[in-house]
Amino acid sequence: MQANLEVLEGLVRRLDISVPMDQLESEGLSRLKRLARNVKMDGFRPGKAPLSAVSRQHGPGVRQEVLGETLQSRFGEAIQAHQLKIAGYPRFEPKAGQAGAAEMTFSASFEVYPEVKIDDLSSGTITRPGVDLGDAEVMKTLEVLQKQRRTFESAGRAAIEGDLVKFDYQGTVDGTAFEGGKGEDFAAVIGEGRLLKDFEQNLIGLKAGDSKGFDMTFPADYAAKELAGKAAHFEVRVKDVQAPVLPPVDAEFAKALGVEDGDVEKLKAEVKSNLEREVKRRVQAKLKEQAMELLLQKSTLDLPQSLVAMETDRLLKMTEADMQSRGVQTMKLSSDMFTGQAERRVRLGLILAEIVQAHKLTAQPEQIRSLILEQAQSYEEPEQVVQWYYQSPERMQEIESLALEENVVAWVAGQAKVDDVTTSFEELMGRA
Fold first, then answer.
1. Distance CA 402, CA 410 (A)
2. Is residue 226 classed exposed, middle or buried when 0-12, 13-18 and 19+ CB atoms within 10 A define those classes?
3. Please, how many CA atoms are within 13 Å of residue 346, restricted to the half-sphere of its CB?
4. How many other β-carbons are positioned within 10 Å of the β-carbon of residue 428?
5. What is the rounded CA–CA span in Å between residue 298 and residue 119?
6. What is the CA radius of gyration of the chain?
7. CATH class of the 151-245 domain in this structure
């Protein structure tokens, strides 16, 4: 077998592979004979069609199949002989002017994986947030849970932020009513953002039975384009003002949140445990983001365009499927929209693979199980969640990838300078 390797531009390589035609014909004939034993063809009983008829109908497909398998086999042998790591798939093309030749030569064009060079990371800096969780954070979380289960009662006073206001309204633009500009028994909580801020502010201070007229301007980026940026006049009549009533943090409240015996202290302990897991997750996410950015800055490599094309196509199809599942109708997506993201993901993937291999950062079974247990703790029946992961190779692959990323982040943190910065819980959660 002949398999000459040619180095082209960048990562592109080309192999010339010669295939004996008598071997292809022999294997093709053998397959046609086996096919003829059972093939169904019009005018013949199953397995009784003459070989010539079977060859006319199925010969081209069988020969193409044999050729494809032979090329893949010989290509694989040549790759091993030249010790190449292939990125993507090869493209086979026959050489010109080979009619009637005893051997046919095909050119296989493909890309190889690049050399990844990673500079010294010691000059890089990573900031690691440090958060102290105390009773205050637990109580704030409980307050959020209380608000989620609040009720409302008529207040008999003027509306303030946080109240539920029921009202009728009529809006006009240039003295003319517009679609959606009228409503009866409309209810909204002031401050939750369901209403435009200028509209909400005009409800504050009104009580049941009050009426008010006011002018306001719709935002320039308002969803209803026909109203965007236009001045409007509204008349409102308040029917009721209701104040929020929070449930007490007691045994019933604890039971409603899954603590079967109603122990409030146990509820607080579970809340704190959940907060600790969330803090750990967010700190790890921030470390990962910085570690990946540092690696991108410090690494040099050529990108295999075949891998970029495959990742671009994957991202496009994934986005289309997501939009379809949510019933979103939009224009046809272009692959160009995902090229930049695909290039970044491929670059990072190659860098991480190099680091994992070079520094033996393979995920260990106990590390994978620890991550699964951590994921399962946020569910009511963690044992079933653990089984759910172990029953699926795809889900296990996701966890293993997560473990590898954690190993790389830890390795980067060990190479770079790490500044520990005291951070409030609110800041870490993005609420500050």
1. 12
2. exposed
3. 25
4. 17
5. 5
6. 34
7. alpha beta
pLDDT digits (tens, 9 = 90+) for 83-96: 999 998 999 988 87
Residue 431 confidence (pLDDT) above 60: yes
Beta strands, E only, 352-425: 417-422
Question: What is the spatial distance between Cα 236 and Cα 182, in angstroms, rounded to a whole number?
Answer: 10
- pTM reported for the whole predicted model: 0.74
Determine the topology of domain 125-134+263-428 in CATH: Trigger factor, domain 2 (1.10.3120)
CA separation for the pair 97, 199 (Å, rounded): 79
Kindly tell me if the per-residue pLDDT of 43 is higher than 90: no
Q: How far apart are CA 294 and CA 291, in angstroms?
A: 5
Q: What is the pLDDT of residue 131?
A: 92
What is the rounded distance in angstroms from the CA atom of residue 220 to the CA atom of residue 228? 5
Q: Which residues have a Cβ under 8 Å from the Cβ of 366 and sit 6 or more positions away?
A: none
Question: What are the domain boundaries of the chain?
Answer: 3-112, 125-134+263-428, 151-245
Q: Phi/psi of residue 304, each to 5°? A: -65, 115
Length of the chain: 432
Amino acid at 249: V
Report the CATH superfamily, name and number, of domain 3-112. Answer: Trigger factor ribosome-binding domain (3.30.70.1050)
Write the DSSP string, 195-206: S-HHHHHTTTT-
Distances (CA, A) of 142 to 53, 192, 250, 267, 277: 79, 19, 11, 9, 16
Q: Which residues contact 18 (CB under 8 A, 6 or more apart)?
A: 1, 2, 3, 103, 104, 105, 106
Buried-state track 59-92, b at ≥16 Cβ within 10 A, e below 16: beebbeebbeebbeebbeebbeeeeeebbbebeb
Q: Is the pLDDT of residue 34 over 80?
A: yes
416: helix, strand or coil: coil
Confidence of residue 377 (pLDDT cuts 50, 70, 90): confident
Angle subtended at Cα 108 by Cα 102 and Cα 110, rounded to the nearest 5 degrees: 175
